[in-house]
Amino acid sequence: MTVEVTTPAAVAVPGARMRREIAEQPAKWHDALTRGGEELRAVRARIWNRPPKAVLFVARGTSDHAALYANYLVQTALGVPAASASPSVVTLYGGAPDLRDVLVVAVSQSGGSPDLVAFLEMARAQGAATLTLTNDTDSALARISDETIDILAGRETAVAATKSYTGELLALAALFAGEETLAQLPALPELGEKVLAVATGPVEELAARYRYADRIMTAARGYSSATAREAALKLVETSYVSAHGMSSADLLHGPVALLDQSVPLLCFTSAGPDAREIAQLVDLAGERGVDVDVIGDGTVTGRTLPAVLPRDVSPELRPVLEILPAQLLAAEVAVARGYDPDAPRGLSKVTRTY
Amino acid sequence: MTVEVTTPAAVAVPGARMRREIAEQPAKWHDALTRGGEELRAVRARIWNRPPKAVLFVARGTSDHAALYANYLVQTALGVPAASASPSVVTLYGGAPDLRDVLVVAVSQSGGSPDLVAFLEMARAQGAATLTLTNDTDSALARISDETIDILAGRETAVAATKSYTGELLALAALFAGEETLAQLPALPELGEKVLAVATGPVEELAARYRYADRIMTAARGYSSATAREAALKLVETSYVSAHGMSSADLLHGPVALLDQSVPLLCFTSAGPDAREIAQLVDLAGERGVDVDVIGDGTVTGRTLPAVLPRDVSPELRPVLEILPAQLLAAEVAVARGYDPDAPRGLSKVTRTY
Questions:
Q1: In this complex, is the C-beta atom of A87 within 8 Å of any C-beta atom belonging to chain B?
Q2: What pTM, to 2 d.p., does this model score?
Q3: For residue range A129-167, what is the model confidence (pLDDT) as tens digits?
């Protein structure tokens, strides 16, 4: 006689969806680079063969952090001014700037935000070329955009976006990074699997330490400033902790006054030009008795976290990997506090702001 | 026999400097519009007669909030794409985008931030026209810039910037607002005096209520989103409260989950296209039992604050006035908590980030 042990489908393990989507990421990246590779190369070639005068990104929430990352790439690699635009210029004030020779890029998991749609419609009318990166190629944004990139993250069911974020980062890197960085893209899926395996244990310990924290500050610089903001947003969305994610430069211009023993500081840095400033911040925080840790390759170290990122990843691609431990952390802190990160209060998948 | 009562110079009243500089603002605006008026009109004429293809702002901290405000003005009134740039594109990664036909505007009270200087040097080399708004026309930024506007705020000695912020807003409005809005500028000094007089009492009551709050959220939309961010930064700098300032649209895309009875929400809105969304946010917050208040003209009301702003100020100029009650609030909350807002820990007037 055998006894079958089954888990009834109706019993939801808190955070099961979010954890599954976090774990899926390296496989999704592989898919995006292979199945989606041809489309990415074609759009890239059109952009680089005749670069626009400027690139304007429009995005909200998590996708706006991917856009922040892309701002650096476009200015550094493509050599074109880039910035993030405010949709309310159009939706509230009816603004219509001259956008001839400008590429407007909408980044949106759902492709459905009415304010982004309104901005893209204005942009087309004002002469811009338009490109949408989305997880839904049937969406309103995809329909009105000159070109659309499918980020191929697959259906995202957890309310806190994870795989759509790294899918957006990866597509943006494939479009806008320099040739040297581009050559490192195919290694990312394997590196991502390693990061997830190495980080899980240390992150569980960190989550136990953060369990009773009312506030958490995150900080990084340059490309990784997108990671600091996105890590804070994940903690806010899943765990209701008051998390501030900042550029370390902005932090040093004021909110550094908030740092004391009651607020842990989580930094993101690895070997690269941003490491010096983060090392200074870690020292300053340490002098004040702040509980400071670093997610990185060991170039700068904090209180307990070991190196969880591989060495020799270019700073341009590091954001794709370094958000993985932060996503795990958000799920773990939520569960430790008795919340279900798959069912956060007050959030839905598509937010309809105008 | 007469008794002279004098206050010895050595006895500093906590917050005396910050309060004095808050109170000085309307007089400084008058000065900037009269003594500085000719220079503002000349630079304005050069910009409007031959508009650039795009405007890029570089700034840090408080001045970056003034730049955020100007982003909306430039896109709506001048009809040219505008955005805020990240200096670390240059200082960390050596990026050098093509900036021909682009106007790069540095906004800096001190004019001394090395990262802004590096960005402006790159911008000149890459073909940009450069303009600096500063309170120190002998500063490094002023020296390397094609044109410089003196914001004429006078020496700012409080560490938390107040009059330099509204001086920057006013100069940016004088340069980039439409003709109709421009006609309202001369009325601002008198309106500012009224706002300070009307707001002082209600703000003291609000400060008493916020005294024990660990966190405060501030929210606004469009032009006023600069106010929400700047109000939060003032609270952080002076009172060590964990204050988040957000666009209400970004708030509704995630951090709305943080709103509960333990976190007061302070909104900024008056009659204008942003009022509808703020009213929705106030209702949503009210349903959750959030302690919500509104600084505005009474178009949208919260829990206790009466209307402290005049009616019929255009949304484009409202940020100059609506930050006044928030500056007073920051000073009052700091003093109520036993801090001296003139001597915040860990802050100095010029932050040297690279």
A1: yes
A2: 0.90
A3: 999 999 999 999 999 999 999 999 999 988 899 999 999
